[in-house]
Amino acid sequence: MASSYSINFLLFCSLLFPIISPSVAQSTSFRPKALLLPVTKDSSTLQYITNINQRTPLVPVKLTLDLGGQFLWVDCEQGYVSSTYKPARCRSAQCNLAESKACGDCNSGPKPGCNNNTCGLFPYNPIIRTSTSGELAQDVISIQSTDGSNPGKVVSVPNLLFTCGATFLLEGLASGVKGMAGLGRTKIGLPSQFAAAFSLKRKFAICLSSSARSNGVVFFGDGPYVFLPGITVSDSLIYTPLFINPVSTAGTSFEGEKSAEYFIGVKSIKINEKVVPVNTSLLSIDSNGIGGTKISTVNPYTVLHTSIYNSVVDAFVKSLANVPRVAAVAPFGACFNSSSIGSTRVGPAVPAIDLVLQSKDVYWRMFGANSMVEVRDGVLCLGFVDGGVDPRTSIVIGGHQLEDNLLQFDLASSKLGFSSSLLFRRTTCANFNFTSNA
Ligand SMILES: *[C@@H]1O[C@H](CO)[C@@H](O)[C@H](O)[C@H]1NC(C)=O
Ligand SMILES: *[C@@H]1O[C@H](CO)[C@@H](O)[C@H](O)[C@H]1NC(C)=O
Ligand SMILES: *[C@@H]1O[C@H](CO)[C@@H](O)[C@H](O)[C@H]1NC(C)=O
Ligand SMILES: *[C@@H]1O[C@H](CO)[C@@H](O)[C@H](O)[C@H]1NC(C)=O
């Protein structure tokens, strides 16, 4: 079952190779302003799923969205048929762009994922925390453009770089998924490749739907990002710096490699406007890359260092003292009888949880729709989970807390724009008008 592709750990000196601009380019004369991918939620795994059309002939490839993933990887061992598949030759410009540090051979090819004298990377599945070595390659993909309000013309990227994963690496992913769409901060992450291919602004935005029945959306490029009924969400974002963790958080990495994930600077947590006591040294990233706050689409719920988790649960329970607690339902620790909790436009009427950022006036406020999870009829739980006493990252903001919020990642200025709950603005992430106006 393991791939026969193997990498020789010959670190080659990048000085030997001229820097050539990437061969990712568009073929048509139409220049899109932005691109989009629809995203659905898989109700059994709680993963966010998208589809990308790839290969010749084009086939839809179902992928789990991985916000912090380094690149697109797909299973090339089973069912990869394409006349436009091109492995990246060792020491080529593509290998250089991908910052591959190793070349490899394969004895059971040639076929996609198995060629001699190619460079390789390490596709990673963060759900099962497993990585493998895989050939770097290029193939055509096609994707819808957008004016921000509707999908438009389909455009193609003839030589999109990706890595071949293996069938065993699909374990833990939703049914039918063939790989992961990495939106991470690398030169070959999808946002950078799409920006380079169409000269888009180096920005992208995610808006995840809370419903498994309706599409959320990822935009590549700048706004406007418009949701029905005609609400330009990109007009009123709050901004906070994005931080780079100097130590890779991927499954396999080399010394000195930075993390491709998106970190923000949470300085304190407030519940009902009162500061929750936490050990603030857990909130910064130390020289070993430990600590801090990141955003993740592969964690269904926010995961907190045990000491932060205990403080948050404590403060939350105190502020809801008049609501009867009921037996906890795993993975949550604090559950309540919902018949004593009112409802509001932004979900169950519970105290707001604020992640306070660069100053006391800049905070990401979470309302009931994002903080509470209805585990069954009549029972609402605080949707945060205990990450243990020794997690790499102290706060991992997970999918449930991101839903119906638009988050724009600006790679050029290294900042995050966030909308807070769109429910306040009487729209949702499922309200993008997917009717094409091409
Ligand atoms: C790679 O090279 C080896 C040794 O020359 C050869 O046996 C093998 O068939 C080649 N594999 C491919 C995929 O070309
Ligand atoms: C706070 O966290 C740091 C980093 O984990 C740890 O070294 C320190 O002992 C903690 N301080 C307290 C008072 O628990
Ligand atoms: C919640 O409270 C109501 C009213 O007191 C009660 O009928 C119901 O059984 C409670 N539900 C749970 C899950 O405890
Ligand atoms: C969605 O977009 C289509 C195409 O522009 C338009 O005809 C339709 O009226 C829009 N739907 C709504 C609900 O506005």
UniProtKB/TrEMBL annotation:
<dbReference type="InterPro" id="IPR032799">
    <property type="entry name" value="TAXi_C"/>
</dbReference>
<dbReference type="InterPro" id="IPR033121">
    <property type="entry name" value="PEPTIDASE_A1"/>
</dbReference>
<keyword id="KW-0964">Secreted</keyword>
<dbReference type="GO" id="GO:0004190">
    <property type="term" value="F:aspartic-type endopeptidase activity"/>
</dbReference>
<dbReference type="InterPro" id="IPR032861">
    <property type="entry name" value="TAXi_N"/>
</dbReference>
<dbReference type="Pfam" id="PF14541">
    <property type="entry name" value="TAXi_C"/>
</dbReference>
<feature type="signal peptide">
    <location>
        <begin position="1"/>
        <end position="25"/>
    </location>
</feature>
<dbReference type="Pfam" id="PF14543">
    <property type="entry name" value="TAXi_N"/>
</dbReference>
<dbReference type="InterPro" id="IPR033868">
    <property type="entry name" value="Xylanase_inhibitor_I-like"/>
</dbReference>
<protein>
    <recommendedName>
        <fullName>Peptidase A1 domain-containing protein</fullName>
    </recommendedName>
</protein>
<dbReference type="GO" id="GO:0005576">
    <property type="term" value="C:extracellular region"/>
</dbReference>
<dbReference type="InterPro" id="IPR021109">
    <property type="entry name" value="Peptidase_aspartic_dom_sf"/>
</dbReference>
<dbReference type="GO" id="GO:0006508">
    <property type="term" value="P:proteolysis"/>
</dbReference>
<feature type="domain" description="Peptidase A1">
    <location>
        <begin position="48"/>
        <end position="419"/>
    </location>
</feature>
<comment type="similarity">
    <text>Belongs to the peptidase A1 family.</text>
</comment>
<keyword id="KW-0732">Signal</keyword>
<dbReference type="InterPro" id="IPR001461">
    <property type="entry name" value="Aspartic_peptidase_A1"/>
</dbReference>
